[in-house]
What we know:
The protein is 35% helix and 17% strand. The protein is an alpha/beta fold. Helix 2 (30-41) packs parallel to helix 16 (453-474) and helix 21 crosses helix 27 (854-867). Residues 1-15 and 875-896 have low confidence and may be disordered.
Amino acid sequence: MLDVKVAARASEAADSGAQQVDVAVVGAGFAGLFLLHRLRKAGFTTVVLDSAGDVGGTWYWNRYPGARCDIQTVDYSYTFDPELERAWTWSEKYATQPEILRYLGFVADRYDLRRDIRFNTKITAATWDEAAERWLLTTNNGASVSCRHYIMATGCLSEPKPPEIDGVKDFKGEIYFTGRWPHHEVPLAGMRVAVIGTGSSGIQSIPVIAEQAAQLTVFQRTPNFALPAHNGPTSADRLAPLQQDLAGFREQARMSMVGVPLPPATEVSWQLTDAERRERFEKGWATGDLVVMLTQMWADQGVDADGNALLVDLLREKIRSAVKDPATAATLSPTDHPFGSKRPCLDTNYYATYNRPNVTLVNLRQEPIVSITATGIKTDKRSFDVDVIVFATGFDAMTGAIMAVHPITGRGGKSLSDVWAHGPQTYLGLTVAGFPNLFMITGPGSPSVLSNMAVSIEQHVDWVVDRLIAARDAGFTTIEATETAQAGWARHLTDCSMITLHRLANTWYTGANVPGKPQGVMPYCGGVGPYRSICNEVVSQGMLGFQLTGPKGAEQCNDGEIVRLQPDVRLVLNMLAGMNLPPLESFGAQGARDFIAQFNATRPAGRPVGEIVDGTLPGAEGPLAYRLYRPATPGPHPIVVYFHGGGWVLGDSQSDDPFCRDMCRRTGMIFVSVDYRHAPEHRFPAAAEDGYIAARWVADHAAELGGRPGPILVAGWSAGGNIAAVTCQLARDRGGPRIAGQLLLNPVTDCSFERPSYTDNATGYFLTRSLMYWFWDIYCAPADRTDPRVSPLRGQLGGLPPAFIVTSEFDPLRDEGIAYAEGLDAAGVPVEQLQAHGHFHSSFTMVDVVITGVSGRVRMAEALRGFAGLPKQAEQGDQAAQPDRNVSRQINAAAG
Ligand code: NAP
């Protein structure tokens, strides 16, 4: 429909007795109530609409037996008013649904909110009136609403999923949905009850239903991890920090990763012995706290499939010890997803319930449901007669609740369903380009369900209301995200999702639970604190990514992307900036070496490899030290001669140790990391000549080193990449050794500082332009700089070994790396490039810090294996021998 027609029709409707307000809010749950309170205080006329009969949102509808919150209730509370905090005391660590509902009622009364809430009212359409710059909302109950701003506080899990099973209508017994549980007492005593679904709702309700029912049959499609809640009064340990410093405690939660003030674990799994890991696990298990188990075991549990698998083994052990029948225990044990990638559950007696004589578990993976019949449930093997069926089958999450309030028609007649046809598109999870003055609280693309919702809701509400106030004060009447900002946010979301393991499971986080729904990790995986700082940065950068307009042509548009760096790179650079370090070059050569050594000493120890051997090889002026990393697999292995980074001035085998270990493990090859001579003690061409000599010696002694005879490979990072590239040229020109391939990671290839990457990334990304000037000055006199032994780009490029060249977007060396790749390609050398977006010079060597570098290292390893003629990792023969590790390897491969 033409824009003008849409606008005219909406304007007509607006004239016909609509309720006129500044802001309309959908939903009277946690978010809607706080919105109403804040908007009112800010002087906006506001109406809240909700299809429920009272306040409560999700806690109004989810009244099934056993419903409780599963984040400690002291954390799952409003924090905006310390008086309110003092006025309410939770009776239990995990409050029941009735108590939470009472709390929300108490809040509504305390701030006199109900008078502006229209209950039992559903919005049937929302249309942007272009001429009036207002939203027109039609409802199923009473007047329509005309509002300047429209805010969806619809929650993330409020739209129950249809049963998706044939024959539901034929069933003659009672049917209940956990997400729409009746308000009246549901008699289950003496009944034969079926529960379909074993997510949080099923797992909470099953033990309670089992106590009441004569017979309970649980139909499980996918087993889930569940942890005992150990409910009771909130522990003194948990209360103490709150009582001592309430404001500080709440602030810590706001800046934390998941909205609960627990510092992240710092030790990685391989730094802990089996006994230490078990001790942590048992302690965590005893706390009865999901957040503890999800974040406090070891630092790699949520980002690395192997680290996660160690935890999964311990969790499965618990299931086996709780469930008497081994076959039932096996059916209840998850095998298809890493712990935490699918929302784990908190239970009370869940596993033990399967020891009861009146409880049966049906594994739908072995006997799928064929249909529901008049008398019960029929699988492809058996029929189960029941009186009651409980669907605990979940929700059309994140987008479902928003799309349920449809149609939503934005600028130019654009429909939100069309815009989201391939998955939700948002800026910050808060707004959508083309839908001015429309906001979502905890929408897709915000931390929402991966966080303590109470903390995320307060942050969103504060941010939105503050923006409305600022726009009003500045005379703007519309706020709208730009397409650029939205596309940038989509990229950032994907980057963030690569850090976690969420993308490796089929869950409602990814839309996989709803047939036909577009797939992709919907919540923001980058953490609550980082997200908050990004939202604040949008404001401090003049509403970056928003267009604001007002009467008489007032307009402001500061277009752009708020985050272009990889999320973990951003954290590292922010941390470094916060340290206010003097420039490295100001320390002098030895001072800089000492500083880097000190810095590296704080890193976690690298991952174990089969063997590490230190040795020396004969150099031009005396022995050169090397460190050899041998894989744990039987040899002989191909050998990679590796050159560390450090601008020909700094670094040693220790500085690149985590990278060498990681690559040794990934490639299954020996890495020999060579300590070439450094400037200023040994200037050009010492490093280049050492590189060549080392490569020749390693090739000559391959068998003694346990390596495979034949061609070697070379690799290097930064100045080490320069040495690797030069070594290949010298080997070609000096008759050997034979080199099968070269991996050049962020290499120095040329003495020019004129390429744009030197200007674009001159400062702010750790390796600065002035540091590069300093390195060059120390290593190489100006007259020597065009020598191919330091500027290999200026040498002959034909006849060189195939190359894999990695460059990083935010690196002064980016363009010379790309130029070298292009030069090799033009000279007929097979070359593959990885131009890593959002990365900086150190992304790939900060092995266990920059997790988004993993996929790059997977590709580097595959390239090296390819050069050496080895099969791709997935084709390796040792998989069958280790079935458990098979899963984690497949997950790792998918992660790559
Ligand atoms: P859910 O986690 O999506 O679980 C739904 C269950 O139903 C899954 O086991 C699913 O199996 C199964 N299922 C779905 N469709 C099915 C079908 N057609 N046939 C057979 N089985 C089917 O939903 P939920 O338990 O309602 O929980 C949703 C989320 O709400 C939770 O993850 C949590 O975030 C929140 N929640 C929180 C609390 C709390 O705070 N206390 C309580 C309840 C819920 P598959 O896994 O194979 O799809």
